[in-house]
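step=predict obj=Aminotransferase class III-fold pyridoxal phosphate-dependent enzyme n=460
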Amino acid sequence: MDTARLISLDREHLIHPVSSWRGHEAAGATILESGKGAWLTDSEGRRLLDGFAGLWCVNTGYGCDSVIEAGRRQLEKLPYATGYFGFSCEPAIELAARLTRHAPGTLNRIYFSLGGSDAVDGTLRFIRYYQNARGMPQKRHVIGLEKGYHGSSFAGSGLTALPVFHRDADVPLPWQHHLPSPDPYRHPAGPDGEAIIHASVRALHDMVASLGGPDQVAAFYCELVQGSGGVIVPPDGWARAMQAACRELDILFVVDEVITGFGRTGPLFACAHEGLEPDMMTVAKGLTAGYAPMGGVFLSDAVYETIRDNTPPGVAIGHGQTYSAHPVSAAIGLAVLDLYEGGLLDNGVAAGRHLAARLAGLGNHPLVGATRAKGMLAGIELVTDKAAKAKPDPKLGIAGKLGRYGYEQGILYRAFADDVIGLAPPLCCSTDEIDILCDGIVAVLDRVMRDPQVADAMRG
Ligand code: PMP
C-alpha cells in the first residue's frame, strides 16, 4: 500500500495512544516500515536513528536474529499455553527462574503481565490482597510522586501524576496521593542532594501522618529515574532513604522498573545502584525488548507468603489474564536475556558514558537549562531564560518543532511537554551513533533557536 493510502486509513480507523486525536488527524502518521540495529526506515525510505528505542523498550536494537529465531521456534512448537487451572509451559518457567535469580532482595516470584500498565495495576491488587491477608484492611492509601508515570490503567493512571492522564478522567482516586518529585533542577529545597533527600523523607512522614498514620497507608511507589515526567534523576541515596522510611512506617516499598530495568541505567535492574530490596517491582519494555508484549510483577517472599498462607486452601486469587506468561513472549524474553548477559549491558554502559560526556557539553547551549543522564537514559531540559529557569511558553509549540526538525535531521527522540528532550537509545549503539544523535540534537536546537518567536522569547 502506498504511504498516502496508509496515512488516510490510519486517520480514519486507528486510535493512537496518548495523542491529540485532532492533532493526529491533521498531521497524519509517519509510517515505520523496518528496522536494523539502532536504525528505522519509514515508508518513504527515510532512515532514522532511533534515539528512543521505540518507546524506551527496544534495548537490543531491531532485527536481532537470535530473538527472531526464538520467537519463530516457539510459534511453531506451541503458540499459546494457558497458565490457568494448573497448566504451565517451559519458556515461562525458565524465564521466571532466571529473572528471579537476577532480581534484588527476596523477589523470588514473578507474575507475568502483558505490559507495564497491567503490571502496575497488578501491584495495586496484590497490595490489597496483602494488607487484607495481614488483617489490616484499613491500610489503603497509596502514595506516589509528582511527575511519576505508572501506566494508564484506570487505577494506574491515578497513581501517575501527569496532567494529561488526569484531565477529564476522574483520577486520581481518593486513596491516591503524590509527594513532590525529587527533581534536583526544580526542587524547592534547591539542588543539594542531601537537602532533597531530607525534604522527601519528611514529606513522606508528613503525608502518612495527614492520612491518619501508618495504619491507613499501604504503599509508596517510585521510579528510580522518573521517565515520562521528564527523565528526572533523583540524587544518589534518595531511593535508599525512601526505602528506609517505608520500612520504618510499615508501608510497602514498590519500585517501578518498567523503564529502568534491563540495562537502561547500566545494571540489569536499577535497584542495584543502591542495593535496594523492594517489596514489589514492576518490569516490562526491555524484558522482551519490544519484540513481543510482556511485563511482570515481582513479589517478595514476605508478600507472596502472606497472601498464600492467609488464603484458604483451594480458594483462588482472582487476578489473571489469558495471555499471562505467554510462551512466545517468554521465549523472546529468554533470547533477550541471553543478549543482556552476553555483553549488551557492557556495551550500554560504555555508550552511556559517551552519551553523558556529550550531554555535559550541551549544557552551554543557550536553550539548555539542565542535562541529566543515568546509563542510556537521558534528558535535556529546555528553558528560554537560564537564570529564571523559564519553561518555554506552550504557545511557542516547541514540542512540535522538536519532533519535525528531528525527523528532518534523521534522528528520533521524545519531546515531553515542550520542555524536555528524552533520550533512551538502544544499548547496542556505537559511540559513533551516539555522536550522530548528539550532533543532530545540537543542529535541531540551533534551528529552534533561530525561530523568530523563540528568539523573541529568549530575548525576554
Ligand atoms: N511504568 C512506567 C515507569 C512506564 O514508563 C510505563 C510506560 N512508559 C508504564 C509503567 C506502562 O507501561 P505500558 O505502556 O507497557 O503499559
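step=describe
The mean pLDDT is 97.
step=end
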